[in-house]
Design brief:
heterodimer; A: six-stranded mixed sheet; four-stranded antiparallel sheet; 30% helix; 35% strand; B: 13 helices; 66% helix
Chain lengths: 220, 287
């Protein structure tokens, strides 16, 4: 059974009014922003279930936007995030949509770039400010953002897991959780770590021949 | 390590420790923090709780939507100037619960405990027994660990999300956490703490989440006031020796099942309950 810290239960220290609809939403936004490339000019938020029905009343819209601007759930500027996004010239769009069989508090966050490229994540706010990210650009995964997290896609071959874990161990990083799945010879690995993540660790892993994609974030 | 109430009782018995100590041991092991560091971190939680529980007692704090507010001050003034029905203790507790709720609804800073919608209950219960039992803030910090232990069991086995389980999962669990902490602070046994937690959830089993206009305001703040009362009477029942016929773990399971049985309209979608009334619908239109 997954372990919780006392500060998951008594926390977050946050700006109201709703831990699931405000604090959790801010965390989904911030995790999305950390995973996305910068220089996006527009962000579209698809809101599902209770998020869709009550986002204005709970300040879910302000919180999601605060998140993609990099604010934490305890940031007193959350209430002004829509204006701040406008000042920064970022287009914001909210669309109520049925995202299928997902948690009632789910958002799909899509970042748009000038070259018509886009990037998305899907995340659910599961209560008390806790979130689960379930999809990154089409890759189904599951992580909470409570740990340093690395997502890696690679051509499946014997020994890769061992190479990656050796690099992590050489960088003095302890693996808290690790999950590997495979689809059509492409493996997806999700690693949660007890230690802060540094760029050179990611760089060293990405230098392995078989790596197709790697991204990492620190706890949010 | 514990995942259930019965495991928690077993650990407390084996190691002859209070719930708070078992929770602190577990947190130290998992986080790598030293005892003093952990206590220091929890003290900061208590400080934010204290500020929010007192902030609206002497001023009218109105919500961002401007629909509600000012009730904490009303109850505080009433307590100070009238005989009251329930006496100073309960009225003071309700005023503090309303205060945190109003800070929350005005997009101010609070501690989710376990959620923001139910954030008024635990601080109000703790600061009420602080005065009643002449406790220190350090004692209350230990109470926070007890409360967190109860909350963790519910999160692991059920839910604390209104969207998933209704208000019983938010305010009901907040009251359960508070009741267990109050019992320990009053010198009650581990079993009594869990009995108190059971009573709190049983008392509001089936309670729907029906925020008017989708806002965490009405009836949420009123339910924080009744939630602290629920916690305090549950603690007294347990301290008096009343036992829950159904044990805590099964009460949590029942609460979870009831939550699943509730239609979506009664789970934080603002489509049912008092949200779906003439006045409730009109309020939504006005926003």
């Amino acid at each position: 059974m997954k372990n919780f810290s006392v500060f998951d239960i008594l926390g977050p220290v946050m700006i109201g009014p709703s831990s699931s609809h405000t604090a959790g939403a801010a965390r989904i936004g911030k995790i999305a922003k950390e995973l996305a490339k910068d220089s996006f000019y527009k962000v579209t938020f698809y809101l599902h279930g209770s998020f869709a029905k009550t986002y204005k009343g709970h300040g879910t819209d302000k919180a999601l936007v605060a998140g993609i601007l990099g604010m934490d759930p305890s940031d007193e500027k959350i209430r002004n995030s829509l204006e701040i996004a406008k000042e920064k010239g970022i287009d914001i769009e909210f669309i109520e949509e049925n995202l299928g069989y997902v948690h009632p508090n789910t958002a799909k966050v899509v970042f748009h770039y000038k070259n018509e490229d886009s990037f998305y994540i899907i995340g659910s706010s599961v209560g008390g400010g806790n979130v689960i990210i379930t999809n990154i650009n089409g890759t189904e995964i599951e992580f909470t953002g409570n740990y340093s997290t690395i997502l890696i896609k690679y051509k499946d071959k014997k020994g890769i897991i061992s190479k990656i874990s050796t690099i992590l161990s050489n960088h003095d990083m302890n693996i808290a959780n690790m999950k590997v799945t495979r689809d059509n010879k492409i493996a997806t690995m999700l690693v949660e770590l007890d230690n802060p993540l540094e760029d050179h660790t990611i760089k060293e892993i990405s230098a392995l021949d078989e790596i197709l994609y790697i991204t990492g974030i620190n706890p949010i | 390590m514990f995942n259930t109430g019965s495991e928690l009782i077993k650990l407390c018995k084996e190691q002859k420790k209070k719930i708070s100590q078992i929770v602190i041991d577990k947190e130290m092991e998992n986080s790598g923090l030293k005892y003093e560091e952990l206590i220091e971190k929890m003290k900061k939680i208590l400080v934010t709780m204290k500020e929010s529980a007192q902030y609206s007692l002497d001023k009218e704090v109105i919500s961002v939507s401007k629909l509600t507010g000012g009730n904490a001050k009303k109850v505080e003034d009433y307590k100070n100037n009238h005989k009251t029905i329930c006496g100073k203790l309960l009225n003071s507790a309700m005023a503090m619960a309303l205060s945190t709720s109003e800070v929350n609804a005005s997009m101010g800073k609070i501690v989710a405990a376990p959620t923001a919608g139910a954030s008024g209950i635990l601080p109000a219960a703790l600061f009420t027994v602080k005065e009643r039992l002449q406790l220190s803030d350090d004692d209350l910090v230990l109470g926070l660990f007890t409360a967190a232990g109860i909350g963790e069991i519910v999160v692991k086995n059920a839910t604390v999300s209104g969207a998933e389980g209704g208000c019983q999962a938010e305010c009901g669990v907040a009251s359960a956490m508070a009741a267990a902490a109050v019992v320990e602070l009053a010198g009650g046994s581990v079993e009594a703490s869990l009995n108190a937690a059971s009573f709190s959830i049983i008392n509001v089993m089936g309670l729907v989440c029906d925020p008017v206009a989708g806002l965490v305001e009405f009836p949420c703040s009123i339910r924080n006031a009744s939630g602290v009362a629920n916690a305090l009477i549950s603690a007294d029942l347990a301290l008096a020796g009343v036992k829950s016929f159904v044990p805590f773990d099964e009460v949590v399971e029942a609460m979870y099942k009831v939550g699943k049985l509730m239609p979506e309209s009664l789970k934080e979608t603002a489509q049912g309950g008092v949200a779906d009334t003439k006045t409730g619908r009109e309020a939504w239109k006005r926003l």
